[in-house]
Predict the 3D structure of the following.
Amino acid sequence: MRHRERGFIEVSREDPGYRPKDERVKDYRAVEVRLSDADLREQAARCMDCGIPFCQSANSSVGCPVVNVIPEFNDQVYHGKWREALELLTEGSCFPEFTGRVCPAPCEASCVCGINTDAVTIRQIELTIIEHGFSRGYVDPRIPEVRRDERVAVVGSGPAGLAAAHKLNQSGFNVVVYEADQYPGGMLRYGIPDFKLEKWVVERRVELLEKEGVVFETGVEVGVDVSAHYLNKRFDAILLAGGARGPRDLSAEGRELAGIEFAMDFLSQQNMRNGSEDVSHLEAISAKGKRVVVIGGGDTGSDCVGTSIRQGAVSVQQFEIMPKPPMERPESTPWPLWPNKMRTSSSHLEGCKRQWSVTTNTFTGEDRVVTGLECAEVKWVLSEPGGRPVPKVVEGSEFAVEADLVLLAMGFVSPGHTQLLDDLGVDFNERGFVTRHPENATSVPGVFVAGDITDGPSLVVRAMQDGKNAAKGITAFLGC
Ligand SMILES: Cc1cc2nc3c(=O)[nH]c(=O)nc-3n(C[C@H](O)[C@H](O)[C@H](O)COP(=O)(O)OP(=O)(O)OC[C@H]3O[C@@H](n4cnc5c(N)ncnc54)[C@H](O)[C@@H]3O)c2cc1C
Ligand code: SF4
């Protein structure tokens, strides 16, 4: 084992990589492999224990949003003290097994080591700490010693709702989580594909929360199956953690053709099939034998690429309207900020053609079914001096592509005025999301909010942190 003090000089960053492409596209199991303990301890030795660990900065735009004490747990891992590392890790993170698999790791983007070399592989270290915790029996159900009288309803079981439920339950409150879907987990279960996050990982955590005393009521849409009035009568506080699943649409000629689908409909169906859920009531969306075009170059688009390939698409293309990002960190997002640079996922490596600066003008079709797209290249120009850049079609750049399935993955918008939100009477912000006041309160006393429903589409780690913040706000509201 290298000396801790010289680790960052003597050891290079090592990433575990993925299972071989030809093997992994035949199933939906996790694509990422893991480093051995010995290799991981060497990687932990690369942590410089620097004076100001930007990786764990509490500044919202830099470092780990749950403020994990990264240098401290790296040191324990270096010394092979996995239980001690786990204790430190779980001080900040409620569910490191989720973030250890799917977090884009803003901590690594602000790692001091990363200024002139590669950042420490923090996410991998985090994942191994928690998985050792589970496999070695360090993660036991922790049942609160004192139960309070107060009851809290959590609406939505995504990472925000789960984190809040965990914290509130640990403080002794009686927590009931309501979830409209058949199983808890939100996007962890129905959005993120199994090849990034296998669902036994979510189930394992939900079972633990149940053993600790959290009650889950699934298949219950609050506002429809039970009313806001019912919640108000039976609970002392309510947390809204319903996410932001409203898909952004594309208004182009031919949009009404069959075969143009929203990404979430496509992805959630596959996740449900993988989880042996009944999908017979849904119109099947399949990429098998099809030429697929994904519109939207983000993570959801990339998940559509990987899922299409596994379903047996004959070709997959991905279009993004924004320009191709630079390969290296650009000056506009200097260290320690999150760099706006090119990212290539395991799905992209499985066989996908990517194009940037592309707009779709028209969908073409036959017999009311999509057969292609008419597109053009765009250039981003300033609308006015000092104004925002807007896309302008490059003359003569028009081109057509054939497609049998088009997946719209252009982000998410506010869920808007649902029955529940209207019945409760909460205020909305200018983007249409539920307004968050200090302490995660809403405009209605006793009603709190957390996660994508107030922030808009974000990250698992941010939703988790917001759930923790909401739990604090609720605890203070209940006078504890
Ligand atoms: C395809 C996809 C891939 C992603 N990949 C990543 C990734 O790799 N890494 C990452 O960090 N982030 C990723 N994200 C983003 C991340 O999943 C979300 O930011 C996060 O899940 C938001 O958490 P949340 O708890 O606010 O809401 P959600 O996870 O959306 O959960 C909200 C839950 O509330 C339920 N609900 C809503 N209304 C009601 C009601 N009235 N009654 C009962 N239940 C209700 C919904 O059914 C849902 O289950 C991805 C998102 C998508 C869509
Ligand atoms: S939760 Fe994300 S940002 Fe925080 S330490 Fe883990 S990988 Fe890094």
The longest strand covers residues 369-382. The chain has three domains: 4-135, 151-244+414-477, 247-412.
